[in-house]
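I'll show one example:
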Amino acid sequence: MKDVFTRMKQVSDIMLDAALAELRSIRQQQAGHQKAIEDLRRKKVEIHRLAVASENPIEAILHAETWNTWHQKEIITHNSALAQLNVMAEEAELKARQQFGRQQATQNLQQKQLSAQKSIAQRRAAQT
């Protein structure tokens, strides 16, 4: 019986580690997209500042408008990816919580089984 609980604990540990690794990967992807959005926003401010300070403002403004169109498309792409990752993160977080609960339940069963074995051994020792 002890062997069964040990195997169950090992399996639940592996499953929890896998769920946490999946969640960690998704969180890293989210951070990458958020950083890309922040970088694009900073670059937009910098390009606008350079366009205003340019010697040829009309050409600079046209360039800035072209870049701004591309910038908006990139932001939309990153926001869309973030939205998908948010859904995936919610699912992965739920899965990790469930795995943690299973791991705890397995651990509790194992501890109950060990304490029952100790109790039986103590009763046998007391009877002899």
